[in-house]
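User: quick one, sequence for these tokens?
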């Protein structure tokens, strides 16, 4: 049976299980009904026999046989009164008086009661003879005339009860078979209704697998488990559609952005190859352009790869010291922008993060601020801890045009004033994506006195008692300690 259940279809299993459950319930109800009726019918007979005996022995003393027989006959209800005398040998001849012609053997227990050898208060049971089946109850008594012990037996024929019980068994059997048939039909109907949403889900999944059509959806009305499954499937398809759209947009944008430097690079190289007698100054200028275009192309490809890598499955976040991570990013930004001063104020504390990704996002913000700062300018870096982390990076450059604010985090978007500067247009897009994946937000502000303020907000976690991890290494000591050794534990972010 277990092997069949493993091989059978889900619809067949549901049908069988529902049929078995309903069939078992019907069978149990039928058995209980039969035993209740059986017990009630026999109880009524036993109560009637007890009432008959109470009529004969109402004086609670010696029994006058003639008077007892007379009283019993006046209240005749089909029962038979028999008096069993002391004969010493159990047999039908021990019955010394009977109100009927039924011959029922006297049992050894009844004869012992009639002989005075038994102390039993009553004996009851069922006796079958050639003339029928009888319910019998016997009690001890004593003859009022002779004083000898007796046994008084009342007999009730129960053939009609046995017939009723046989009829009841037949009816219950038919009802049980009908119930089993209904159970099978109900099981099949329940299986069809239950399996229909699963079939729709299966059909949609097979359609998507065969056609790669992510626009297919299934009905997800309702609040039950199957509706939740359908809703989850639709949400999964929506996420896949969004991912495919993002991938297509990334490829399209990357192709558009790569076309310009590749075309310029190809043109310059062709000029260098075709013009053998090119003046040395012109050749040097073309080679410089080629070198700059290669650097721009390398940066762009690195940022595209980094952006695509972030959409892959990332390792689980770990608890790290956010102040140490920010200070490490500041040190790297200092080495890239030697003409810019970084004014740093950091609160200590921890955050759950993927260290390499979060440091890349912070470094991109710092590089962006340094790029727009004038020579000798100052970049203010403030990390505050309240009910959440707030990292403010402010430069004192020309600032972002208000019309560009809504699009500063779009991929490959570059403001009109930034197109003459190096960069791929992906730095802030990477920042937004990393911060969002860490449960935070990044917001640009335009201070009244000029410049740009980038604010990153992240959730706080409780600090562990042990040292705080940063990537594969540990940071201990005050934020102002030496962090140059961390270069080996945190991958270096590519320059913008």
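Assistant:
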């Amino acid at each position: 049976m277990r092997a069949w259940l493993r091989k059978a279809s889900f619809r067949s299993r549901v049908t069988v299980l529902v049929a078995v459950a309903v069939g078992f319930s019907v069978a149990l109800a039928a058995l209980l009904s039969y035993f209740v009726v059986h017990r009630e019918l026999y109880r009524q007979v036993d109560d009637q026999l007890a009432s008959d005996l109470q009529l004969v022995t109402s004086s609670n003393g010696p029994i006058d046989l003639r008077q007892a027989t007379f009283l019993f006959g006046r209240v005749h209800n089909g029962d038979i009164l028999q008096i069993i005398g002391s004969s010493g040998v159990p047999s039908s001849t021990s019955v010394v008086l009977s109100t009927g012609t039924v011959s029922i053997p006297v049992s050894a227990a009844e004869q012992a009661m009639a002989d005075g050898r038994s102390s039993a208060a009553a004996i009851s049971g069922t006796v079958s003879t050639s003339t029928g089946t009888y319910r019998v109850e016997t009690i001890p008594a004593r003859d009022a005339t002779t004083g000898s012990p007796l046994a008084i037996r009342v007999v009730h024929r129960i053939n009609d009860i046995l017939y009723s019980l046989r009829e009841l068994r037949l009816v219950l059997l038919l009802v049980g078979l009908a119930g089993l048939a209904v159970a099978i039909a109900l099981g099949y109907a329940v299986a069809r209704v239950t399996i229909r949403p699963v079939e729709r889900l299966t059909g949609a999944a097979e359609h998507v697998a065969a056609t790669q059509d992510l626009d297919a959806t299934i009905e997800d009305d309702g609040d039950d488990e199957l509706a939740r499954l359908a809703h989850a499937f639709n949400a999964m398809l929506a996420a896949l559609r969004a991912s495919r759209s993002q991938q297509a947009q990334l490829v399209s944008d990357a192709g558009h952005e790569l076309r310009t430097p590749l075309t310029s690079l190809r043109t310059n190289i062709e000029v260098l190859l075709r013009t053998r007698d090119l003046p040395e100054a012109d050749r040097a200028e073309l080679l410089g352009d080629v070198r700059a275009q290669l650097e721009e192309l390398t940066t762009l490809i690195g940022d595209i790869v980094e952006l695509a890598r972030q959409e892959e499955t990332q390792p689980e976040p770990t608890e790290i010291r956010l102040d140490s991570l920010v200070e490490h990013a500041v040190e790297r930004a200092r080495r890239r922008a030697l003409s810019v001063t970084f004014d740093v104020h950091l609160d200590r504390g921890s955050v759950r993060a993927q260290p390499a990704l979060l440091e890349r996002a912070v470094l991109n913000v710092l590089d962006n601020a340094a790029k727009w700062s004038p020579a000798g300018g100052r970049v203010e870096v403030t990390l505050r801890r309240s009910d959440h982390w707030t990292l403010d990076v402010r430069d004192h450059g020309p600032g972002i045009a208000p019309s560009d604010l809504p699009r500063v985090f779009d991929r490959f978007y570059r403001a009109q004033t930034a197109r003459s500067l190096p960069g791929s247009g992906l730095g802030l897009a990477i920042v937004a994506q990393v911060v969002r994946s860490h449960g935070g937000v990044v917001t640009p502000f335009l201070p009244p006195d000029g410049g740009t303020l980038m604010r990153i907000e992240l959730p706080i976690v409780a600090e562990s008692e042990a040292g705080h991890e940063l990537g594969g290494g540990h940071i201990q000591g005050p934020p102002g300690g030496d962090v140059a050794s961390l270069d080996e534990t945190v991958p270096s972010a590519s320059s913008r």
